[in-house]
Structures are given as C-alpha cells and as structure tokens.
Design goal:
With 475 residues, the protein is an alpha/beta fold. It has 14 helices and 20 strands. The longest helix has 24 residues. The N and C termini lie close together (9 Å).
C-alpha cells in the first residue's frame, strides 16, 4: 500500500490529539451527583439533628401516634434518605460516645471515647472545623449538655464519664450557643467565666425568648431536661423552641454556622421501655426538625441532616388499635399531649433487646445539595462527616464517597434477639450472635461521562478519525 501523504498523517495526528484532549475532569471513575448552584451571597451552613437511640421503629411509633397510618412525620418528607451502620471500632454494638465521635470526626473509635481515635489521639470535629472557617457554632440537647453525644463534638477525652474535664472543655470550647440540661456539672467559677466571656447565662423558657443576639449559655435543669410528657411548658423550653432560637442567633453570622441538635431523651425513655415517653419525645424532636426544614427551605446554602447515633432496646412495632382522631386536630397543647399518650398506649410494641443494638438507623437529609444522590443507600456513620466536610468545602456531594456495600463479621452480642432490614422490618432469630455490618468502599464504576454533550463530542471525534482512515486507505 502506498504511504499516506504527509498532510494526511498530520490530519490524523491532529484528530487523535483533539480526541485525547477532551478535559479529563469529564471522563472519570467517579460520577459527580448532588451538584447545586450556591447562592454565594449566603454562607454555607449545616444543621445536624440526632435522635439519640432513634431507630426505624421509634420513628414508626411516633408516626402512628402523631399522624396515623397514612401520614408521615416531618423528617420522613426528606429530599434524600439512607440507612446508617453504627458499630464502634472495638464493638459491634456502639455507645453514644463512639457513635457521636464517628459522625463528628469521620473516624471509628472505641466505646466511651469522645473526640479521639482508638490510640487516644485527639481528632478535629466538624464543629471545630466550622470554627476554623469563622462560622458560629451551637449545641442543643434535651439531656445534659455534658452527655456523650453533644460532648463528642466539643471535647477530647478517653472517657465519657470524665464529667469535670468535659464541663471545663465545654467552657473553653467557645461554642456560641449552648442549650440543654446539666447545670449541676458547672461550678460557679465556670459560670462566671462564661459571663466574663460575654455569654448570656439563662435558666428558663422566658429568658430564652428574650435573647435576640450574642452568645448564650442556657441550662434549664440541674440534670436532664424533662421528658416531653412531663415538661412544664412555662418553665422549660421545648426542643423546637431551642432549635428555633439557635438558628435565629447563629444565622446572624455572615460566615455561616454549624448547629447540632440532640433529642437525647428518646434514648432514655427507650431504655426504660416506656413507649409513651419514647413516642412523645420522638414527636417533639420531629417538631424541631420541622423548624429546621423551614429554614433550609428558604436558604439553599444550608443543609439539614437528621439521623440517630444507634438504635435502643430493639423496639419492634407490632400492631395498633388507633382511631382517626389525631393530635393535630386539637387546639390545646395539653390536650394534644394527653391524646398522644392515649394513642401511644394503643400501639402494641415489643422491646427485644436489653441495651443498644447494631441495627441500621435512619438518615433523612434536606437541601438542594442532596437532590441527586441515589436513594436508600446503606452508609456508615463516618460518611456523615464526609458529607458535611465536603459541603463546607464547596465540593459536590458524591455517591461514590459513600460506603454503599457491606461485608459482615460475627460478634457476640447477646443483647440483640431480632434482626431488622433498612426499612425497619423485623424478624426473630434464635441465636445470640449478631451480625455486625462493616463498610467498604464501592467498586470502581469505570469510565463515566457526566454530560451528554461530552459523550456526543467523543463519539463524533471517533467517527471522524475512522472516516479519515478509510479515505486515506482508499488513496
């Protein structure tokens, strides 16, 4: 065959170079999803809400009580949802300290550890990262503010029971809004330090309502705040009111904010196997979620993540005998509370464990950044940190960073006597061994084109090269 003219060779080289020079960022082994257009006149902010001990069946109990079998709670009307594995570094069944630290830092740690890894090295939390970005920060809990879940975002210690050290670290943390119980764990010197640093120190619902700006340290009980079923409306604020005030104060920061809200008493009611208080505290938590949803709806640079640190007591909702009268139909808050209690008692449940379980827990996310993520993924609690960190960095949220596949190992956990799937469906098991989900990254999905236009250009370039080669051969 006669050699192709030099000009033809040059044309082929140009075509090949043109094809290969398509920007590599658009041909990748990771498919970007969840991209959104930030309103850059607004700062990036995150609201993370944790229902302590709140498994799928805790949510189901609250749903039946509040809105009936055909309704849904506020948290369930999310733009994205997932199921979350919760095991600790050293145990199949976690506690709040290890689970809180996993979400706060993206690192698995041992039970009892707060803000540090298994080797007891301190880890930067998402709250502390927000502070490095000059964002305001807030922590709210219906339990003691020194408890494991809120503390895991603020302190670093190898024991969740180092209460004196935890209280001192909280005083030194410079968190702008602190609301919850636990006044008895702070001495007069620490309170004086907070006042000298410019905090408004408040003790009841009326004082909370009067705050309009600045830093605030609100401690509304010596120990835990009251269960919603027992709360004196005139003295203690609701978790929804604390959430609303926190957003009001933190959103004044032009750099954005990070807010953690814990519905802590859900867990304690479940440990007591008290279905009335479990239901009412979960409903109260959902009312606080509604407050946060309203804010996120109006501010597309803020995201809301609602989840749990673990499931408590193996709650299983079996059946119910409920009529059509719903709490929302009543005018009086006291009447609504009474009806909720009556309805909770008309739901048949079983408590199938004697502590926490390793069942997956729900995650509900709100905000435009989550709109394109695949639904019903199984992720690990450490992935929650990755999502929050990427959002603050302005990175598109990407499904390939999430642990969507699992492997299993068997660990002795005699407290768990049932298993559950990611929807909360349960079945009994005869063994005292539980299966611990451990996550591993997803397989490489291969080359993917993130734009139909780029795919068309690539195919067109290939066709041109083929036609050129055919013409040259004919010559």
């Amino acid at each position: 065959m006669r050699a192709a003219p030099t000009s033809s060779k040059f044309l082929i080289i140009l075509l090949i170079i043109s094809f290969l020079s398509i920007p590599s960022a658009h041909i990748t082994n990771m498919k970007p999803v969840g991209e959104f257009t930030p309103a850059y006149n607004e700062p990036l902010s995150i609201i993370l809400m944790i229902g302590d001990g709140m498994g799928f069946n805790h949510v189901e109990l609250a749903r039946l009580v509040e809105v009936g079998g055909l309704g849904s709670l506020n948290m369930q009307d999310s733009e994205w949802n997932a199921s979350v594995t919760t095991h600790a570094a050293n145990a199949a069944v976690t506690d709040s300290a290890a689970a809180g630290t996993a979400m706060a830092t993206g690192t698995k740690t041992n039970t009892g550890y707060l803000g540090m890894d298994p080797s007891q090295m301190p880890l930067e939390t998402i709250l502390e990262f927000a502070q490095t970005q000059n964002k305001s920060t807030g922590v709210v809990s219906t339990c003691r503010i020194i408890d494991a879940t809120p503390a895991s975002f603020m302190v670093h210690t190898n024991s969740r029971y180092n209460y004196d050290d935890i209280a001192q670290q909280i005083v030194e943390s410079d968190v702008d809004v602190l609301l919850g119980g636990g006044l008895d764990y702070f001495d007069s010197t620490q309170i004086s330090i907070m006042i000298s640093k410019g905090y408004s120190v408040i003790y009841n619902r009326t004082e909370l309502a009067s705050i309009t700006s600045g830093q605030v340290f609100g401690v509304f009980a010596g120990y835990h705040m009251d269960y919603e079923y027992d709360r004196d409306y005139s003295v203690q604020p609701s978790i929804a009111e604390m959430t609303n005030k926190s957003i009001e104060l933190l959103s004044q920061d032009s750099d954005g904010f990070f807010l953690l809200v814990e519905g802590g008493r859900i867990d304690l009611a479940a440990h007591d196997e008290d279905q009335v208080r479990t239901a009412l505290d979960t409903i109260a938590f959902d009312k606080a979620v509604d407050v946060a949803i309203d804010y996120v709806t109006d501010h597309n640079n803020t995201v809301l993540i609602v989840t749990a640190d673990h499931e408590t007591e193996g709650l299983v909702v079996i059946s119910h005998n409920l009529n059509s009268e719903l709490p929302g139909d009543l005018l009086s808050e006291e009447d609504r509370r009474t009806l909720r209690a009556e309805r909770a008692n008309n739901v048949t449940v079983d408590w199938t464990a004697t502590y926490h379980t390793n069942w997956p827990v729900p995650l509900y996310a709100f905000g435009e950044a989550f709109s394109d993520l695949d639904e019903d993924l199984l992720i690990d609690n450490t992935d929650i940190f990755s999502l929050m960190k990427d959002f603050y960095l302005g990175n598109p949220l990407n499904e390939t960073v999430l642990s969507t596949t699992t492997s299993t190992t068997t660990t002795e956990t005699p407290s768990t006597t049932t298993t559950t799937d990611i929807t909360g469906t349960t079945s009994e098991t005869a063994t005292t061994n539980s299966t611990e989900p451990t996550t591993s990254p997803t397989d490489n999905p291969g080359i993917q084109f993130d734009s139909p236009l780029l795919l068309a250009i690539s195919l067109g370039s290939a066709i041109v090269i083929i036609v050129a080669l055919v013409l040259i051969k004919r010559r």
